[in-house]
Amino acid sequence: MTPSVATSSPALQPATQVALVDALVEQGWYVGRGVIDLTLCNALNNELLHRAAYNGLDEAGIGRGQQHLLRKDIRSDAIHWLDRESAAQRRYLDAMSELQQALNHALFLGLFEYEAHFAHYPPGAFYQRHLDSFRGRANRVISTVGYLTPDWPSDGGGEMVIYHPDDPSQEVARVVPEAGTFACFLSETIPHEVLPTRCPRTSIAGWFRRNASLGGVLDPAR
Description:
By secondary structure, the chain is α+β, with helices and mostly antiparallel strands. It is about 20% helix and about 30% strand. The protein has a single domain, classed as Jelly Rolls, CATH 2.60.120. It has helices at about 15-25, 40-55, 85-105, and strands at about 30, 60, 80, 115-120, 125-130, 140-145, 160-165, 165-175, 180-185, 190-195, 200-210. The longest helix is centred in the middle third of the chain and has 21 residues, at about 85-105.
């Protein structure tokens, strides 16, 4: 049974949009703790763990469309694309739709859709340093990560490391994957990785996209 989701409080803290836009302009990335409503985090986390327990996740790969490959030496998480099938998913995606409008209004980015998936990292899983979009092929423009795991231990590992856009060897932030934390960054300029986790790690990875289809050739979302 899908857990009920309280809607009396906003899915994202109201001050998030202003702080997020300012951070993207100033440094290309944003991290906020306590941003996502914890009741919503709990409902999404339960849904993801239920899928993990009943083989409802797919092995994650790299690349899109015909270039999609399974490379466990690069990433070893499992995913499920959000499809609005639960109240919790709809509430989260509606919040992202509002954020998309705010980003377009403030930064004139022309974002036209948002895609997202659950991500489950079992103990030992990781994702090597990478970019979410190649320069000059700005399909994915802004990446987001919403963290769902409650009571994350200090020795749990699984941090997302954000690197300087001009020096991929220089670490600029390390994000602890605790419930309520929300991260956002420019997809084609901010290198990042997920360090090996010692505990089951749950999150939602998402991307605001432009329409990069040209000459009748479709640019796949996935």
